[in-house]
Design a protein that fits this description.
- The radius of gyration is 14 Å and the shape is globular.
- A seven-stranded mixed β-sheet has the order 5-2-1-6-7-11-10, sandwiched between helices. Strands 3-4 form a two-stranded antiparallel ribbon. Strands 8-9 form a two-stranded parallel sheet.
- The protein has six helices and eleven strands.
- The chain has a single domain, classed as Class I glutamine amidotransferase (GATase) domain (Rossmann fold, 3-Layer(aba) Sandwich), CATH 3.40.50.880.
- The model has no long low-confidence stretch (mean pLDDT about 100).
- The protein is of the alpha/beta class and about 170 residues long.
Length: about 170
């Protein structure tokens, strides 16, 4: 269990991409990491695009980012909502400033764009937000997974196995 003792924060909001939330959580738990779901409201059940539920353990205000080693931002339509919360932007900036692992997949790049942390960073995302990523100063690369320091990005659900492996490898260092 190479991730025993590691703590990961997963951001949650309505209309998350079901696989992009649950696949990483389950894989990281299998490797020994503790994953906490955080949202605007604690103990509320949020639903993914395909109806899979996820319950937030904490609200954004209750989180101490220094207690966590990594941050997962799932895709779907949730990122468009998540990036509107000042607390989410603060969390992302904290993880970036402390060079802690940040994983983003598909549309999750919108959250990193709003946090203004992508200037000069190599990333990928769903091709649908490529222009948004490059307009934020990122170098967009058409690959399934891109690792640039502590920022790990991926394009879509079929890329989940290599994406989560790269995320876990980053946490294990």
């Amino acid at each position: 269990m190479r991730l025993k003792g590691k703590k990961v924060l997963a951001l949650l909001e309505e209309d998350f991409e079901d696989l992009e939330l649950w696949y990483p959580i389950l894989r990281l738990q299998e490797e020994g990491a503790k994953v906490d779901l955080v949202a605007q409201e604690a103990n509320k059940t949020y639903y993914g695009k395909y109806g899979v539920p996820a319950q937030a353990a904490f609200d954004f205000a209750a989180i101490q980012p220094e207690d966590y080693d990594g941050l997962l931002v799932p895709g779907g339509w949730a990122p468009d909502k998540l990036r509107r919360y000042p607390e989410v932007i603060s969390l992302v900036k904290h993880f970036d400033q402390h060079h802690k692992i940040i994983g983003q997949i598909c549309h999750a790049g919108w959250v990193l764009i709003s946090a203004k942390i992508l200037n000069g960073v190599k990333v990928t995302s769903t091709p649908g937000i490529k222009d948004d990523m490059t307009n934020a100063g990122a170098t967009w690369i058409d690959e399934s997974v891109v690792v640039d320091g502590h920022i790990i990005s991926s394009q879509r659900p079929p890329d989940l196995p290599p994406y989560v492996k790269a995320f876990a490898d980053g946490l294990a260092k």
